[in-house]
Amino acid sequence: MNTSDMTTAPDLKSWVESANAADNEFPIQNLPFGRFRRDSNSDWLIGVAIGDQVLDLRKAKLIDTIDMNHLMASTSDERRRLRLAISEGLRHGSAQQAAFASALVPQDQVELGLPCQIGDYTDFYTGIHHATTVGKLFRPDNPLMPNYKWVPIGYHGRASSIGASGQQFHRPRGQTKGPDDPAPSLGPSRRMDYELELGIFVARQNALGDPVTMEQAEEHVFGLALLNDWSARDIQAWEYQPLGPFLAKNFATTVSPWIVTMEALAPFRIPFQRPAGDPAPLPYLDSALNRAAGGIDIKLEVWLQTEAMQKSKLAPQLLTTSNYSDAYWTVAQLIAHHTVNGCNLQSGDLLGSGTLSGAAADQGGSLLELTLGGKQALTLSNGEKRTFLEDGDTVILRGYCEKPGARRIGFGECRGTLQGVRK
Amino acid sequence: MNTSDMTTAPDLKSWVESANAADNEFPIQNLPFGRFRRDSNSDWLIGVAIGDQVLDLRKAKLIDTIDMNHLMASTSDERRRLRLAISEGLRHGSAQQAAFASALVPQDQVELGLPCQIGDYTDFYTGIHHATTVGKLFRPDNPLMPNYKWVPIGYHGRASSIGASGQQFHRPRGQTKGPDDPAPSLGPSRRMDYELELGIFVARQNALGDPVTMEQAEEHVFGLALLNDWSARDIQAWEYQPLGPFLAKNFATTVSPWIVTMEALAPFRIPFQRPAGDPAPLPYLDSALNRAAGGIDIKLEVWLQTEAMQKSKLAPQLLTTSNYSDAYWTVAQLIAHHTVNGCNLQSGDLLGSGTLSGAAADQGGSLLELTLGGKQALTLSNGEKRTFLEDGDTVILRGYCEKPGARRIGFGECRGTLQGVRK
């Protein structure tokens, strides 16, 4: 059953009028899932964003659970049926309008949490422009490793320190060593950075020992959210060999509250192809469907609001734009690769895309790229300069899909603030 | 309150007679914690091993939870009081003998599971002999990275594929590329290996942003178990740069069922000192207590039983012995380092020590070391040869503490079997 055409048709309107505004990110064609609560003593509940409201799915009698991970473990048919039921109930003229209306809560009256409980978190490295630029900084002679075009490079990250949008965290301390220092020392990171990523949430699990093929892969994906993989570059440079990043990353990771489902993204699927001359993916990472529509056209943005901007009531400033279509590996390829050895992905697990930079110099998805490793400061609109993040800086990631003939949908925002060192 | 002296006194005897046999690993001085169930439809229950029995702690009215992670989150005083109550009830002449006796189950009548729910799993690299030997194989010119003696190197591992002793798993497939191959290919790993490690289970959590000092570190440790970090060396060699091991490790990791507590290990604490000429640890990784007693004298063994041995009813063969005292970083240093950036460790989280090899060539904690990267086969007692693991091989890790004036305690076993590729 393919309900995408029905639920993403551009002429669909909702009786929730805010959802019909052209600039609203959560029209009836989107219907992203998240968790909300009215106060910090209440349970997290499962909701779907519609306009400026949240639909409480249990109150609307669409589900009887408050366990998002359980819901994510449904079959893809079950998920599509639920989406269709939500869409039908929210449409203009729905007989369920009164019942659903009593299950709406204004978004600005709730707290939005992590969309689910995240068991394991894996971070990939699919942004080839990022990998190349950063590779040059760390390894001038050897920017892109020989395995890059063959292996979707990934590594395990820390689940416990992942927070929902709005996360505030202290500047981490760690060991660093300058090239001329005789010995390392402990101190606050001086090269704090963000990374613009997408997060991929796992739907149905695969059993341990049971690889997922390219053909099955997207049945195991619930949807996508924005992800900021905060990084301490000076800690990373000293610690990362030979086993990879560790304390440079695991102090905080921020995700946006709404999971935009694969069904909502269906109109924005695009062909996936390698640049001419690049090797074809090995057969376990290839499929006709992936070549035809493995990519997703998602426009991405990084915004910065410094403490001084906030005090002067200046709006955040756009730093970067890029597009997920530049990723070197697709969502399906990440799932197929991650499980080819039998590794079990569980409902609610999170995969990071890796930093999604564009090809142009001003499309870096991190300050490391935009400032050439801190060598060339950015001048902000209020005259402030940045090589890396300063205390009080708020970074906001945004993402949206739009194209002629489709209703624009958005991801909401992924916002996080770097605070000073904890005293 | 320090109850260690009372509960580890060598003359203590239990009315559970099997616990008093000199070769039993679970005398009343040990009292390790684990989870057991009578059949696969029952809940996991919390038990303590005593002789050949398990004491059901809830049935003995010592606790009212079946949630081990909740129990692990107790304060260290609470944990010590519980240990004392268990010890007193199991001692010769205890008034509680009848009540406790009804809460005993023979170990051979229960299934032993993972001791707790593992949220995040971090693997360290504290075996300097392992790091040096393996470093030579991967990087002949540069075996030990410049950071090794400064940074307790660690990386995040996969929690979902960690299994309890008895775990059986299929030989993983993965990408490999020989030095002369024009391109990589997908196939079953041909260089399957084990790694002899200890696992460190986290007790009380620290809040995100709140580092744990060296002085506080062991309050956050519940105890230790054996850990086998199965590794596919050929997959590792091709995938691991620049972000570390991933599919080479995350298909399976096996831990022993019993967590031997820090209280039980107290008699076996030893001074921790660096080899002469090595740099002193940075202050955040140093403490007087750590220098005086940061080490633990735990004797470790690797045993191998091939399928042919099993068919011929031949006992497993001892491959290696080593000692945890050779580790380059202590348990407290791993906790202090992991949290220095504010990373939050949660109750039940698992830290691997890294492969614990001894200094001698025959003390390698992996086949990679014992066979010089597969160049020199081991000849087993029945004439079979091994460079890496073959299908049907069972690897058994064992560990124990003994010294004059203390009762010998053991860790039980960590057993796992490599099966053939899944058809």
Biggest β-sheet of chain A: count, sense, barrel? Answer: 8 strands, mixed
- Assigned CATH superfamily of the largest domain in chain A: Fumarylacetoacetase-like, C-terminal domain
Alpha carbon gap, first and last residue of chain A = 57 Å
**Subunit organisation of the chains:** homodimer
* CATH level 1 class label of the largest domain in chain A: Alpha Beta
Point out poorly predicted stretches of chain A.
none
The number of strands of chain A is: 26
Query: In angstroms, what is the radius of gyration of chain A?
Result: 21 Å
Largest interface: A-B, 66 and 66 residues
Mean pLDDT across every amino acid position of chain A: 96
Helix run count of chain A: 11
What is CATH's topology name of the largest domain in chain A?
Fumarylacetoacetate hydrolase, domain 2
Helix/sheet category of chain A: alpha+beta
What is the beta-strand fraction of chain A? 25-35%
Can you tell me the CATH architecture of the largest domain in chain A? Alpha-Beta Complex
Helix content of chain A: 10-25%
Task: Give a description of the structure.
The structure is a homodimer of 423-residue chains. With 423 residues, the first copy, chain A, is α+β, with helices and mostly antiparallel strands. The first copy, chain A, has two domains: 109 residues, SH3 type barrels (Roll), CATH 2.30.30; 299 residues, Fumarylacetoacetate hydrolase, domain 2 (Alpha-Beta Complex), CATH 3.90.850. Helix content of chain A is 18%, strand content 26%. The mean pLDDT of chain A is 96.
List the helices and strands and how they pair.
Two copies of one chain form a homodimer.
Chain A: H1 4-8, E1 33-37, E2 45-50, E3 53-56, H2 68-72, H3 76-90, H4 97-101, E4 104-106, E5 111-112, E6 121-124, H5 128-138, E7 154-157, E8 162-164, E9 167-170, E10 173-176, E11 185-188, E12 192-193, E13 196-202, E14 221-228, E15 231-232, H6 233-239, E16 253-255, E17 260-261, H7 262-265, E18 269-270, H8 288-293, E19 295-296, E20 299-305, H9 307-311, E21 317-323, H10 331-339, E22 350-352, H11 367-370, E23 378-379, E24 385-386, E25 394-401, E26 409-419
Parallel strand pairs in A: 6-22, 8-16, 9-26
Antiparallel strand pairs in A: 1-2, 1-5, 2-3, 3-4, 6-7, 10-11, 12-15, 13-14, 13-22, 14-16, 14-17, 18-19, 20-21, 20-25, 23-24, 25-26
